[in-house]
């Protein structure tokens, strides 16, 4: 028996390889590595570890042929493990790299170019160990070939101890600068461990855009189809001469490295002799026959390249000159084995009936007799339809066909449709082609795809016999799994794409129906199909079941489901489609935006997920006419039903469950999420483990507060995984395996990698967070203020897309543990977090030391990332030292403004004119320079405003200001008795805040609406002589106060029943204190009242005040006690009654039941209103 040549063996392997179950998809892996062992023992250990991994997976080795350095280690270890080893080495390097006995088979080649071509041709994948120039040159060349589409083989870097970090950084820089495309970046797979690297390479899927270009170049093999026989004869002749020479034949590099890789075989010239001349003559004849066969076969069938017909050889150019003499293309191109089929087959089939086989369907449609399950499934289906009917609208087939469509199916605007039929082993191709040829709307092209199929030859023969120029056969020995058909779809120039599994036989009207619906305005941005799934719903225990859970309503739906008599009579939106996909050609590329969760399955869900995430496109199952099989997407639904519903293997079910849960956890808006919108108080976002730790106290406070709900989102990937976050939070890592909302891992690092460019991070964070926010409707998204600016931008954009008002809260790290009270705010108040603006206004003149003390206390306070403008109001007599203090003060929280009077105005003008609100959310904090503040003063203001002003469920219009100070005296009566709020309110709670009719001048925040009102009131009532003022409050010392802005504010508050909120803590500790330094009132010459410092100075709060509040939170507004001007307990209604009774306001109102109401925008008195 004659031994088969290498070419014949290769051909047989391509047809038989997929039939055998192997531990790895790779038969041989080429390892590039150095002839030096390197300086670290870890490099040598890694070489041996890689060799063991190859042996464990039954993978043979192709390497550089040397016996020293890492090459020697890896080859010896693989050989000792019982695997075949092929070494390829240039003859010139043999003395340098082979110092002893080599292992396995050694091929000596002429030069480095030939070495790379042989190594590539014998390998299914490439791995680079640490090495030098040669290693880099080899691995970069195979990467370049992959980028050009010359091969689809994975290329891996074994990144031992970060050896290739600099190279990866360089490549990332090239991507950023536009020299390498982002898709080409994904060609390189890297990992520090051999096991993980080989696993990643097993899952590798090529992402270059021109898959067809590789297949086109493979047609060039036809030109050398006889080269194997020629080489065999030469081998025989050379052996007679005692060996081979290193001289290459003149035609050896006719096609360059391309043909060396794709299919060319090294053609070595024999020594000159009589026999070699004979062989040379025979070779020439065979060569010209090959050229003739090339252009004959090339022009008897259309090119595999579905866009252009590239000119690679001079033979092709000759063929083009003869094109007019040839038959018009009508048969598909014969790739790879075309010439051999001409030789081996005496009689080729000429009609489909001679080669067609039909799928025998032994399966009878299962009908469930489980009454409970039928009831549950039907209930869920009805709930879905009712919801979609109310929110989106559903149509019957008749109604859909009556809608206006952009496609004129019978006119000039008829759509071009490319149909892709993916086949492996099932015998349905003839039935599918027959159905397509009978469609009421003709297709433009039909591509029959065979990737790694053991039936490739029979599938090709079937396509041949149909003899239709629109039908093409595209094959590859590489198994592209489920994604290859969609990558092929990228090549189409048609308007629409119809991808069909081999278990679908569409009815004759299907293309017409699909094209019409795809042309409607409503469904133009959609993917359409005939079979779909609705993913699981949440159970009562707040977990999600497996999609295959038995007897579970929440497990979701398979539509249509004949087992439960569920037919689709109206279009229904699903979470993903199965078995067929009809969509715009422009939408196909969306599938490849992100790396899939796995390449082994789930392209159906990944397509729908990516389309919704990046294109806001839905997935829909079309209705059918039950009486007309020609409207069915699958006239033999039993095939698809068996494919989809009989998958019971635990591993496959688990993978699919993991995939849909991952999609839902990263923002996929499923039908459950649409039907049952969630409402959570907060979503936390952490981009690193450190950020998780910083946010942990506030997250735990939310989760431990009754009625509150909060989750945390982490970046994932190399930044912060779910497991990392769980460990930082001291949660069991099992939470990352449960299908329960707790931690959302966005896997951003694994998708986009590390990059200095903002685009990948912004894109990944924005799209996922947008979906999560839409699903969970958080009141706030909370993160740290110093988060990566790219991430912050993405979070801001995502928050702003939510129509239900979600606010991004950026908290300084030092403040997080001080604002645990956020969890006590109502969810309706939280979205107002960023609305308020506190404008600090400082009144100063000639107390530089006091001012310095105030500014120091301002700088040391806790702030929450808010913008806080600060203004210095200086009178005309300001001294030089004060000006220097003001000028040198640095304020990082907002703009700093300096104002100085030309004419001395005095205290009344200095205060009242120091601030005027710019909006209803602008609050004024007025501070004289002898005041000092607590570090917690801003937190008190923010908490009080959020609880009593910005909560839509709280109505407290009487609140006009918030005091930082707690008084020790009853200031407005002649005796000025001492007063202690802690003692006074001990029957309620000793530390309860309270409402008081007295405004505070020693540190207070004034509300914008009431301050406008005060401006108008003071303008109408100001008199130089206090006794001539029309308002005289009974028994109040304020009646005699001269030149006091506070007197006029007290009068207005008394007349209209307004109050101020006061703190109340032990020892009257406050958020501000007054140092009672000489000024306009204290120690003034005309002031006969003595002011003892101990009666006014109070201690400042130095600890978190939340722990001192009743139940550790602000009491409800309805529970706040209220005092009148004289510190007597009076209700808010009683305060209004007292003001009305006095009857001295600017408008005459009913003294018993009415008070003055003003225009909130202008402050002008408007009318009288009953209280």
UniProtKB/TrEMBL annotation:
The chain crosses the membrane at residues 278-300. Pfam families: Lysine_decarbox (PF03641). It is an enzyme of class 3 (hydrolase). Belongs to the LOG family. GO terms for cellular component: cytosol; nucleus. Cytokinin-activating enzyme working in the direct activation pathway. Phosphoribohydrolase that converts inactive cytokinin nucleotides to the biologically active free-base forms. Its EC number is 3.2.2.n1. GO terms for biological process: cytokinin biosynthetic process. InterPro entries: LOG, LOG_fam, Nucleotide-diphossugar_trans. It comes from Phaseolus coccineus. This is cytokinin riboside 5'-monophosphate phosphoribohydrolase. GO terms for molecular function: hydrolase activity. PANTHER family: GLYCOSYLTRANSFERASE FAMILY PROTEIN 2, OSJNBA0004B13.7 PROTEIN. Keywords: Cytokinin biosynthesis, Hydrolase, Membrane, Transmembrane, Transmembrane helix. It catalyses: N(6)-(dimethylallyl)adenosine 5'-phosphate + H2O = N(6)-dimethylallyladenine + D-ribose 5-phosphate; 9-ribosyl-trans-zeatin 5'-phosphate + H2O = trans-zeatin + D-ribose 5-phosphate. Residues 1-20 are annotated as: Disordered. The lineage of its organism: Eukaryota, Viridiplantae, Streptophyta, Embryophyta, Tracheophyta.
